[in-house]
Amino acid sequence: FITICSKLKDDIVSVYPHLVDTESSVPPALPYIHSIYLFLATSIPLSFIPTIWDATKDTIWELSGDLQEHQRTINDLYKLYGWERGITRIQLHPHIRSCIQQGCKREGELQQQSTEEVIVFTLTSSIQRAKATSLYCPSCKVTYTDNYYIHQGAQLRTYYDHMPQYIKMNEHHFVETRIAEKWTSSMV
Question: How far apart are the first and last CA of the chain?
Answer without folding.
Answer: 39
